[in-house]
Specification:
- This protein is mainly alpha-helical and 141 residues long.
- Helix content is 79%, strand content 0%.
- It has one domain: Globins (Globin-like, Orthogonal Bundle).
- The chain has 7 helices and no strands.
- It starts with a helix and ends with a helix.
- Bound molecules: protoporphyrin IX containing FE.
- The site of protoporphyrin IX containing FE has 18 residues, from helix 3, helix 4, helix 5 and helix 6.
């Protein structure tokens, strides 16, 4: 079942990248994120957003795919990520949830009316898995 969900999620990311280029999607994700969490602009201030957005977009996608492909052990990678982000003073799990939601909204918007109910379900499960990982990981900090 998880494998099927992972295939759907993977395919929709690839289709979104065919519709819009990855840089555009990455900037859209960050714009949506900053609209909801304007105070986080300060965290990104030392970095060139044009450069880091694409990396962030790819890494968030990888983390989501990891969560749905390996629900049994992907929490370990999430723990490492949360630990590493303490360096940037990112402590609030709400920010992680917000960035993930911005990622999914970006993919959904790129696909427009091609977005199917199967995709909706697969993404909801994937996000739930990632949220679980983040909640678990945050308890280890
Ligand atoms: C699931 C969510 C997230 C994942 C998977 C993730 C992943 C990563 C990774 C892998 C890097 C290192 C990039 C590199 O190799 O150079 C990074 C850097 C960084 N992250 Fe995140 N991150 C997430 C959420 C967040 C959030 C919520 C914030 C801030 C509110 C944040 C702020 C930063 C900053 C400031 C950097 C350094 C600049 C950069 O290299 O992009 N991250 N993140």
């Amino acid at each position: 079942m998880y494998q099927h969900q992972a295939e759907i999620v993977d395919a929709s990311i690839k289709r979104a990248k065919e519709r819009c280029n990855a840089n555009q999607l990455a900037l859209q994700m960050m714009t949506t994120f900053f609209q909801h969490f304007p105070e986080t602009a300060e965290i990104f201030a030392p970095f060139d957003l044009n450069k880091v957005s694409l990396i962030k977009f790819c890494k968030v996608g990888d983390a989501l795919l990891d969560a749905v492909k390996h629900p049994d052990y992907s929490v370990t990678a999430t723990e490492e990520e949360l630990y590493r982000h303490l360096t940037y003073n990112v402590r609030d799990t709400g920010y992680y949830f917000g960035l993930i939601d911005a990622y999914v909204a970006t993919i959904q918007t790129a696909l427009g009316n091609e977005w199917t109910s199967a995709e909706n379900e697969a993404w909801q499960d994937t996000v739930a898995g990632m949220r679980f990982n983040i909640n678990q990981a945050s308890q280890q900090l």
